[in-house]
Specification:
heterotrimer, A alpha+beta, B mainly beta, C alpha+beta, B: mainly beta, OB fold (Dihydrolipoamide Acetyltransferase, E2P), five-stranded mixed barrel, 2 helices, 5% helix, 45% strand, elongated, C: alpha+beta, Ribosomal Protein S5, domain 2, five-stranded mixed beta sheet, 7 helices, 10 strands, 33% helix, exosome (chain C), ExoRNase_PH_dom1 (chain C), rRNA processing (chain C), Ribosomal_Su5_D2-typ_SF (chain C)
């Protein structure tokens, strides 16, 4: 439990009233993000992202699975969120279950709403087999704002995931899948539609984007919005009493920042640099 | 949501209702202040009482009681009544079942430590002679204590065992 | 939440597109369903509330403030008051055999129930004045008797009634409403199960009586910002009317029981 004394809390509130934050950022500015992809050789796709002090590792494993009844998706996404013990003792044991299932639900809901893997090429045998992407997320260090770090890392890991090419052989009503053994016969996924979360904390009367851990502890409310590249909202998570008027003002900021952030992420992955 | 307040007649309140438009009220139980306005936080009857200062009324809300037991929580300074569960050489463990003669829905754990049993000569007292499991005692809450129990004290003259089983007469004082 | 359920345990005998064609909404788009409120239905609990929103029926019982049953978290946490919640969907509230089987009824808490309970705690944590109840736990027990859409909104209303009935200090009663955005871009207030499943997006809004603030917004589906904002504004207006009805109900209950109180 990150503890903040009353004096520190009062100081934080006063600085935010003036329009800047303790580390010198503006109210709607992200901390420096550094990104590495392909860090796990055994996974189909992986990324490691550092947002300020928060560090997240994501691995994607691609499998072929049976289609879940009554689902029309080409692809099944299974998210698993875990927090390593070295990061924080808060997230061990029973408390961790509710925290991680909330995050998993948020990611699942956002990706389903955004219809990310709409591609026809990804469908295997409709009604029988489909791709199953298992996304394993491990939080290595908690420095505030885990939701954003997780969503950004997931998106970059998925964008560098290599899906092997599969030949479907139909014989006497049953299907056989032959996976190409050639390591170069792979496709990358198109994740332009994947959303990313933007988290705001309500401190005093102001919303701040990308709260650090001190700011999160002093916050009396929180709003996480998942936006995709078009600025459409895919998922909302809120906590605390939020002012209705401020919300509408926030949405324009969300749209703008979301676009900029997603563009930068895609650029970085393409150029192979860290920002 | 606004309701006009008529000071002469009794009024009922719902949590979240605004109780005053002017700023000359002081807060009693069952209400809170936000942005210079007083709002109700309990469902019940509102009462206005004159305080000493001019033009100032104290607002209290008496919660609606459905059953005989109340959902109060012990706070520092409350007079509580409890049953002795366990007596050790340095403390008496008590199950609090009433606050100021009001029966509670749920019982709380309280502990009377040796220094708090009486005001004088705490090292000469043998707790096993003063208390027995099953006695009913009256005590005062001195602090919230630790997560397991509230800290109580029986040092006032009206505190102590008030009902014990071997003799049916209540003893007022140890 | 409702959309996700239909994706997993969808109706097995009626495909969704045919449901949409045959279904006719009998009330105006911005009218909620009939609301039935009641308090004091569970005699043993400190407070209880019962809400019927159309055919959706939810009952909530509050036990507390009482010493916590299970100590959770570190030592620092146990001196603060806290809220716990257990949501149970009754076994007869599922509408098809398959969904009952998949939801693991009777075999412990399903994930959907767990998510609903964390959401309800999230709504009421800023509402209950926990400073007045140190070291205590306020336990909410929710049973969804029938789910015909907008179950979470009904749960929030019932919990507000239960907390008021238990004389637990709260900032305000919370009213809540769901708005569905249909495939024809219409805003349907308080959708029932069919409308929720066919919807493109669902927004549930919970707000206290002084409606300048919102307790919680829950959102499913993909919506542009303008549509989202209009849906939220519509939901806020309707939730205010529901909040007023709830207040009137509570005041009428007080007047009915104008007997001297039993405890001094």
């Amino acid at each position: 439990m990150y503890a903040v004394s009353k004096a520190e809390k009062a100081y934080l509130l006063d600085t935010i009233e003036t329009g800047t934050r303790l580390d010198g950022r503006q109210l709607f500015e992200y901390r420096p993000i550094s990104l590495q992809v392909g860090v796990l050789p055994s996974a189909s796709g992986s990324s490691r992202l550092r947002l300020g002090e928060t560090e997240v590792l994501v691995g994607v494993k691609v499998e072929v699975g049976d289609v879940v009844e009554s689902s029309n998706d080409n692809v099944q996404l299974l998210f698993t969120v875990e927090c390593s013990g070295s990061a924080s003792a808060d997230f061990l044991g029973r408390e961790a279950e509710s925290w991680s299932s909330e995050l998993q639900n948020a990611l699942e809901s956002a990706y389903r709403a955004a219809n990310v893997f709409d591609d026809e090429r990804l469908s295997l045998v409709p009604g029988k087999f489909c791709w199953l992407f298992k996304v394993d997320i491990l939080v290595l260090d908690t420095g505030g704002n885990m939701m954003d770090a997780i969503s950004m890392a997931t998106r970059t890991a998925l964008s560098t995931t290599l899906v092997p090419r599969v030949h479907i052989v139909q014989s006497e009503g049953s299907f056989e899948l032959e996976i190409d053994d050639n390591p170069d016969a792979c496709d990358t996924l198109k994740v332009e539609k994947a959303p990313t979360f933007l988290t705001f904390s309500l401190i005093g009367n102001h919303f701040v984007l990308d709260p650090s851990i001190q700011e999160e502890t002093c916050a009396r409310g929180k709003l996480s919005v998942a936006v995709d590249a078009n600025g459409d909202i895919c998922h909302v998570y809120s906590f605390g009493l939020l002012d209705a008027v401020e919300l509408s003002r926030l949405l324009t900021i969300i749209k703008k920042t979301g676009k900029v952030l997603l563009n930068r992420l895609d650029e970085c992955v393409k150029n192979g640099e860290s920002s | 949501m606004q309701h006009s307040t008529n000071r002469a007649t009794a009024m009922f309140a719902v949590p979240g209702m605004e109780l005053s438009e002017q700023g000359n009220f002081s807060i009693g139980t069952g209400c809170y202040c936000l942005h210079q306005r007083v709002y109700a936080s309990l469902w019940g009857r509102v009462s206005f009482q004159e305080t000493g200062e001019a033009n100032s009324l104290r607002i209290d809300i008496q919660p609606r009681t459905r059953s005989q037991r109340s959902t109060c929580v012990p706070t520092v300074g409350d007079e509580v009544i409890g049953k002795v569960l366990k007596v050790t050489w340095r403390a008496v463990v008590v199950e609090i079942f009433a606050i100021q003669e009001k029966l509670l829905c749920y019982t709380f754990r309280g502990v009377v430590r040796l220094p708090d049993v009486a005001t004088t000569s705490s090292d000469k007292i043998d707790l096993h002679n003063c208390f027995r499991p099953g006695d009913i005692i009256r005590a005062q809450v001195v602090s919230l204590g630790d997560p397991q129990a509230y800290y109580l004290s029986t040092s006032r003259s009206c505190d102590g065992v008030i009902y014990a089983m071997s003799s049916a007469d209540p003893n007022q004082r140890i | 939440m409702e959309r996700r359920i239909s994706q997993r345990y969808g109706p097995f005998f009626e495909p969704i597109h045919s449901l949409e064609r045959e279904y006719q909404r009998t009330r105006p788009n911005n009218a909620p369903r009939s609301l039935v409120l009641n308090t004091g239905t569970v005699v043993d609990a400190a407070g209880s509330g019962y809400v019927e929103l159309g055919k959706t029926k939810v009952i909530v019982a509050v036990q507390g403030p009482r010493p916590p049953i299970r100590i959770r978290g570190g030592v620092e946490n146990t001196m603060n008051g806290r809220i716990t919640c257990e949501v149970v969907k009754s076994s007869f509230c599922y509408y098809s055999y398959e969904s009952t089987r998949m939801a693991n009824v009777g075999r412990g808490v399903s994930e959907e129930e767990r998510l609903l309970s964390t959401r309800l705690v999230r709504v009421f944590e800023p509402i209950v004045i926990l400073d007045k109840y140190p070291k205590c736990s306020i336990d909410l027990y929710v049973v969804i008797l029938e789910d015909d859409g907008s179950a979470f909104a009904a749960m929030t209303l019932a919990t507000s009634l239960a907390l008021a009935d238990a004389s637990i200090e709260i900032i305000s009663v919370v009213s809540s409403v769901t708005v569905a955005i249909s495939t024809k871009q219409e805003y349907l207030v308080d959708p029932d199960r069919t409308e929720s499943e066919c919807a493109v997006g669902l927004i549930t809004v919970s707000l206290p009586l002084h409606a300048a603030q919102l307790c919680e917004i829950q959102h499913t589906g993909k919506l542009s910002i303008q549509v989202w904002l209009s849906a939220v504004q519509l939901a806020v207006e309707v939730a205010q009317t529901i909040g007023n009805s709830m207040c009137q109900f509570l005041l009428q209950e007080m007047e009915k029981n104008e007997t001297p109180s039993l405890c001094s």
